[in-house]
Amino acid sequence: MPKTTRRISVPAPPKSAKKSASGLEANPRQPKSLATKSRQAPKKPKAPRRWTAAEVHEAFTRFAKANPEPKGELEHVNPFTLLVAVVLSAQATDAGVNKATRALFAIADTPAKMLALGEESVRDYIKTIGLFRTKAKNVIALSQKLISDFGGQVPSTRAELETLPGAGRKTANVVLNMAFGQPTMAVDTHVFRVGNRTGLAPGETPLAVELGLEKVIPPEFMQHAHHWLILHGRYTCLARKPRCEVCLINDLCRWPEKTVS
Ligand code: SF4
Question: Which of 93, 126, 215, 245 is the most buried (most CB within 10 A)?
Answer without folding.
Answer: 126
